[in-house]
């Protein structure tokens, strides 16, 4: 969704395995048995054993961020920090300062380090969400850092090298964008040494039941109420729906169903399945 003020700061999230590690982000906790999903997991496991940059592509709500975290925590960098940054709307100054932590008054080839950026995630991973929405200026800012692999201070001749893995994600077809000269081809090459595609929920319908049961358990724990069973008619309605919002929509639908369940029973006719609303939400977030 486009922000009213395009110069707003980026949203960032930093955690470390030793203190804030999510306990359900490991490969064996990623639920699914559909062939396409299992192939995706194989690709992700291979990426975790590598140290190359990873580009995760896929529709809204298919779990790109969770997959990125899993790759990080299962890699040799898993004890380092994981920094998640939303790149959808950011003016160049904020992109430079918030992501890279360098002074924008430096010359093109000499970004100056500040308190932040890749330096504070050294030996960890940076997750860049929705890189397809980066402006041309921000693409160039990212590319020049990847080319240098170091910060050069304006006040000192010393170069501050960083050792950070980049995992990025997008809903957009960045290859087509590169063909249309809307995304820099060299930047795409550097970000996509490994490419992984997530699977839409409608293409893995056999996983809906298991995902729903897992979500209902989490919802019950979060709300501090008894676990509500999944009846056959409810499961059929979930299975027959196309899920434009994918896993995110499934969780949202079940959360609403639990909150509104009369006498602790989830009924098929009470499920709020609004494909138009989720299509609109996906388009706004793209």
Number of strands: 10
SS content category:
alpha/beta
Number of helical regions: 11
Tally of individual domains: 2
Shape: elongated
CATH superfamily of the largest domain: P-loop containing nucleotide triphosphate hydrolases
Written as H for each helix and E for each strand, in order along the chain, the element string is: EHHEHEHEEEHEEEHHEHHHH
Could you name the ranges where pLDDT drops below 50 across 5 or more consecutive residues? 1-25, 103-115, 151-157
Which architecture of the largest domain would the CATH scheme give at its second level?
Answer: 3-Layer(aba) Sandwich
Ends apart, CA distance between termini: 7 Å
Mean pLDDT, all residues: 80
Radius of gyration, in Å, reads 21 Å
- Biggest beta-sheet profile: 6 strands, mixed
The CATH class designation of the largest domain is Alpha Beta
Bin the strand percentage. 5-15%
Helix content: 40-55%
Topology-level CATH name of the largest domain: Rossmann fold
Major sheet: order of its strands?
A: 1-3-6-9-2-10
Which secondary structure elements does this structure contain, and how are they paired or packed?
Blueprint: E1 12-16, H1 17-20, H2 35-49, E2 54-57, H3 64-73, E3 81-86, H4 92-100, E4 102-103, E5 112-113, E6 125-129, H5 136-148, E7 150-152, E8 159-161, E9 165-170, H6 174-179, H7 185-191, E10 194-197, H8 208-223, H9 232-240, H10 246-260, H11 275-285
Parallel strand pairs: 2-9, 2-10, 3-6, 6-9
Antiparallel strand pairs: 1-3, 4-5, 7-8
Helix pairs in contact: 2-3, 4-5, 8-10
